[in-house]
Amino acid sequence: MSADSARLTLRQDPATWRALTVFAGYRFFLAGVLFFVFYLKLPPEFLGSVDPRFYASVSQVYLLIALVLLVFTLKRWGYADTQIKLQLVIDIVALTMLIHASGGLQTGLGSLLLVVVVAGGALVPGRLAAFIAAIATLAILLEVSYSQISGDGATKYSQAGLLGATFFVTAWLAQWLSKKMQTSQSLAEERARDVANLAVLNQHIISRLQIGVMALDAHGQVTLFNESARHLLGIERSIPGFKLKQAVPVLAEQIWLWQHHSPQPFEAFQARPDLPLVRATATKLDSGETLVYIENTSAMAQQAQQLKLASLGRLTASIAHEIRNPLGAISHAGELLAEQQSHDVGMQKLTGIIQRHSQRVNSIIETILQMSRRKTVEPAAVVLATWLDRFISEFRELKGAAEQDVDLTIESPLAKVAMDPEQLHQVMWNLLENAWHYSDPDKASPRISVRLAKSEGEIVVDVTDNGPGVSIEVQEHLFEPFHSQRQGGTGLGLYLARELCQANGARLSFLPDELQSSRFRISFPGEWQEYLA
What is the SS3 assignment for 390? Predict the structure, then answer.
């Protein structure tokens, strides 16, 4: 490091100012001790013994200067290098005069100059430290010379020379130790910065992970979690420090089973009906904490769904012909039998049963074939506000509904989602068809409410009707195939709607509310969204 760069560092380095402040505090304390010991006539008695008046004047001035320099240092006025050089020279001059007024080097006060030299070696760079040692040595030699000229006794040049040599050695040692300490401090600060940067980087990575991360202590208290974990588990708190059992009981139970070595502790679950299906895994850390990973199974479910639908397509394509041919024969035979036995009321009733159930079976086959013929998912950017407005106008027209019967609320007008438009149409039509069927026309409008909004980082579309709601028993089988309370229904509508949503990376769920109305929600996860607002 050059002299110029060293001086620039001294001017700007806060550590140098802190060290100088400590030394200024020491100077003020030393000046106070030298002054008050003399005025209170405390031991040692040799202080000021040769020239009391001169000692009193110098000690007073030195105490005042020490106070001023302490204030200057605390305020960090001026440049640090200038302050250091000025203060060290003042110390050497003042202490040399006090030593002379107390009887010279035989009093042992020369050791006070060693502290000044050590401070010079620690605070100033390079040759300046040797310069401070040279000034201290010169001051001692001048004091000895003046004492000899004034005729106070034996020559003390050997003692002065030995003390001067000690000054130079001390300055060099202080310089060497100071460099070692500065190197160690620089290394420690660099390591601390690296650790801090690494911690910030880790925090940034964890916070941006799509996988939820959560840390628990030995008592089941959450000590850390990222945003993904908060959204996937529906945690309302934004800071850790709560019991997992209170926030997500089902996950707390799974972790308890894992800790007690259950063979299959972790199963897919939903923290709330409107949240995605997730699966957790856990690992034990050396610190005793438990690290939990929460993974959204939507992507895996989407891939599995594609495979399942492809298999279903091959299966239905192979057996549809074999089923529909005998079914057609049965239906045709029932029609002929009904014509031949038109006079028999009992026979007409039986043939009517044959026709109705034949039509029901045919409807089921048509729905399954529709699923098997469905083209590969081709997602496209859909502006939901515009799309929903056109769709609901079409639905009103086909149902002959008034405008107030089907209400549309747009809370996120510029939201885009990625979904196959034809399959989105099929899903929404199924939901609105069910809502229209189960709604109550005698109640106040609207019979159906459609809402587009943002919720916890997702775009959601809610479809709600004013009907009697869905019973708890039916909710358990709501999305199962061939399960329907609707007269003539196949029980495949909601099942197919959920399958289509999963194939497109979305999520269809049923949300009961306090009014017991039926509310279905399509949720488009964040990784599939594009916000323009």
Answer: helix
Give 155-214 pLDDT, tens digit per residue: 566 777 777 787 778 778 777 877 777 788 778 888 888 888 777 777 666 666 778 888
Round to whole Å and give the CA distance between 92 and 84.
12
Which of the pair, 312 or 243, is modelled with greater confidence?
243
**pLDDT exceeds 50 at position 1:** no
What pLDDT is recorded for position 488?
56
Contact 361, 327 (CB under 8 A): yes
* DSSP element (H, E) containing 26: helix 14-39
Mean pLDDT of the chain: 80
Measured distance CA(387)–CA(464) in Å, rounded: 18
Contact 501, 508 (CB under 8 A): yes
CB atoms within 10 A of CB 56: 15
Contact 78, 24 (CB under 8 A): no
Cα(240)–Cα(246) distance, integer angstroms: 13
Q: Which of 177, 65, 73, 159 is nearest to 118 (CA)?
A: 177
Tens of pLDDT, residue by residue over 397-409, are 888 888 889 999 9
Q: Go through the domains of the chain in sequence order and give each one's CATH number.
A: 3-195 (no CATH), 209-296 (3.30.450.20), 305-372 (1.10.287), 380-531 (3.30.565.10)
Q: How far is CA 83 from CA 21, 26, 78, 193, 376, in A?
A: 11, 15, 7, 30, 79
Q: How far apart are CA 125 and CA 386, in angstroms?
A: 73
CA distances from 342 to 229, 328, 353, 470 (A): 68, 21, 15, 42
What is the token pair recorded at 290?
């438990």
- Torsional sign, CA 113, 53, 39, 24: negative
Q: Worst-scoring range by mean pLDDT, 13-17, 91-95, 98-102? A: 13-17
Separation CA 99–CA 222 (nearest Å): 67
Residues counted in the chain: 533
The rounded distance, in Å, linking the Cα atoms of 321 and 427 is 27
Cβ atoms of residues 99 and 143 within 8 Å: yes
pLDDT of residue 531: 38
Is residue 532 predicted with pLDDT exceeding 50?
no
Strands 448-455 and 458-465: antiparallel
Query: What ranges in 409-471 are assigned the alpha helix state H?
Result: 421-438
Q: Read off the tokens for 381.
A: 């950017």
Q: Give the pLDDT band of residue 461 (cuts 50, 70, 90).
A: very high
